[in-house]
Specification:
46 residues, 67% helix, 0% strand
Length: 46
């Protein structure tokens, strides 16, 4: 549950940056999530 709240807050912050600057949503959200310890998603192996 706390991970969901963290992802929602990071998404909102990244959207604020994207809306104000017009770029940087992916970089901002990935950087913030990695800095808080959320592991990146691994692609599914067949």
């Amino acid at each position: 549950m706390t991970t969901l709240v963290l992802v929602l807050l990071v998404g909102a912050a990244a959207q604020l940056v994207d809306g104000s600057l017009g770029m940087g949503y992916g970089v901002t959200s990935a950087s913030l999530l990695l800095s808080t310890g959320v592991a990146p998603a691994w692609p599914a192996r067949p």
